[in-house]
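Structure (tokenized):
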């Protein structure tokens, strides 16, 4: 009988060196390719038949397998190895386990620079995980999961609470979300405030990203006056999850961040302390409930240690009170404040000229590495809408193409994201996870792993 484990289990395993499809393919043909994000095991002991039982099961080879420790990886397995977190039902063996659920956390490879190594790095991008040194695999994995063979890894009497979701993994991720030390916080609403004289800038703290998931849409209620505890903004996240933020301060609403609200709402989650600010307020009275970063972190840790961590930490803002009509009326009578954050590019021509010039200066230098992509890749931009084509190794050419042409893959992003990307200031793996960059086609991931590196 497989037993659910109380915490995500740490495991190490290898896959075949990725081919052009950039997939993590198990060595055994009985197992399917891993997908980005959580994978659920299915028993295929009888090919072509419906699964005989839930995987894993004793006496059957099914389940997502991994070793307890990285020494289980042979030299031959080091072309594409990784660390995984596993949860749900787990069959534990002396050297490893077979699990119901697992997710890859990071990859490592001892391949030398070249096309095969590039494919491992592009695969890591596609799966939204970093490539780390072999010696760092274990330390990286321990941020999310725990070795089953740890003496303290399975405390007696711990209830099996994991199945089937990865909530506990999320708790650990919450602890890793940065809490900027140079501002004040209202813990129950996960909002931050930076006060300069009688002006307060307000935003959401990074841990709230967990309650929202990816791709938020934001509605700030610009009611002229805000009062502490009254609705300030509503943010809708993944799966329609909604967070209603009460204002952490009272005063006159001077500006809302239109760049965030209308153009790049993901900045609220990806750059919550900089570009993702929400509103500026002229304080009418000193805020009464704000605490320092350390106190917020302590409070968050206490909430996340509770039996229902999500409800404890985020429950206070999870149900939105809709603003009433009287709240909203002043918004219609009041001119919108000017956009405080200019976009990186004012027009499509602007973007094509600037990004095109940066690419043209780069391509000749990096041609040998880029030629291995063997595809025409369209760089598709929004805000402003503009498109660039790069031929990478097609007919021996590495070039920015002048006009429209059929592309083998697309990489889509906003003009602002492109600006950061080609300045070398973007965490590409994070941007993919947040869908700030969307890639269509395996060649797109390969291009994305090679192009920014050529700028460095
Ligand atoms: Zn089976």
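Design, position by position:
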């Amino acid at each position: 009988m497989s037993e659910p484990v109380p915490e995500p289990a740490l495991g190490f395993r290898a896959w075949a060196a990725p081919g052009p499809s950039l997939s993590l393919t198990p060595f055994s043909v009985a197992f399917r390719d891993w997908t980005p994000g959580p994978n659920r095991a299915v028993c295929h002991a009888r090919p072509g038949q419906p699964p005989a039982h839930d995987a894993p099961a004793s006496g059957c080879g099914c389940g997502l397998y991994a070793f307890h420790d990285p020494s289980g990886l042979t030299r031959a397995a080091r072309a594409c190895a990784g660390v995984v977190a596993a949860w749900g039902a787990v069959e534990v063996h002396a050297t490893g386990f077979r699990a119901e659920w697992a997710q890859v956390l990071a990859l490592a490879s001892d391949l030398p620079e070249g096309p095969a190594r590039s494919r491992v790095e592009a695969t890591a991008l596609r799966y939204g995980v970093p490539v780390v040194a072999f010696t760092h695999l274990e330390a990286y994995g321990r941020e999310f999961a725990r070795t089953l063979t740890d003496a303290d890894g399975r405390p007696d009497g711990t209830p099996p609470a994991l199945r089937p979701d990865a909530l506990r993994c999320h708790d650990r991720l919450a602890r890793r979300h940065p809490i900027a030390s140079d501002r004040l916080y209202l813990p129950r609403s996960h909002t931050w405030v930076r006060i300069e004289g009688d002006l307060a800038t307000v935003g959401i703290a990074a841990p709230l990203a967990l309650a929202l998931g990816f791709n938020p849409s934001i509605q700030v209620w610009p009611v002229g006056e805000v009062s502490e505890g009254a609705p300030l903004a509503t943010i809708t996240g993944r799966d329609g999850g909604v967070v209603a933020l009460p204002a952490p301060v009272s005063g006159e609403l001077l500006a809302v961040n239109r760049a965030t609200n209308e153009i790049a709402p993901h900045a609220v989650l990806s750059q919550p302390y900089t570009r993702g600010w929400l509103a500026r307020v002229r304080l009418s009275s000193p805020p009464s409930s704000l605490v320092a970063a350390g106190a917020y972190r302590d409070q968050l840790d206490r909430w996340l240690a509770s039996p229902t961590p999500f409800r404890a930490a985020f429950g206070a803002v999870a149900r939105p009170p809709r603003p009433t009509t009287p709240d909203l009326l002043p918004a219609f009578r009041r001119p919108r404040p000017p956009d405080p954050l200019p976009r990186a590019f004012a027009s499509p021509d602007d973007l094509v000229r600037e990004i095109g010039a940066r690419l043209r200066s780069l391509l000749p230098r990096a041609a040998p590495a880029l030629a291995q992509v063997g595809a025409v890749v369209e760089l598709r931009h929004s805000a402003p809408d503009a498109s660039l084509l790069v031929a990478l190794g097609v007919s021996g050419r590495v070039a920015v193409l002048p006009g429209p042409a059929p592309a083998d893959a697309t990489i889509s992003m906003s003009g602002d994201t492109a600006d950061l990307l080609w300045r070398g200031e973007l965490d590409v793996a994070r941007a993919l996870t947040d869908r700030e960059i969307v890639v269509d086609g395996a060649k797109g991931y390969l291009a994305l792993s090679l192009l920014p590196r050529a700028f460095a």
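Reviewer-requested clarification: The pocket of zinc ion is lined by residues 43, 45, 53, 55, 57, 60, 62 (CB under 6 Å). Residues 348-370 form the longest helix (23 residues).
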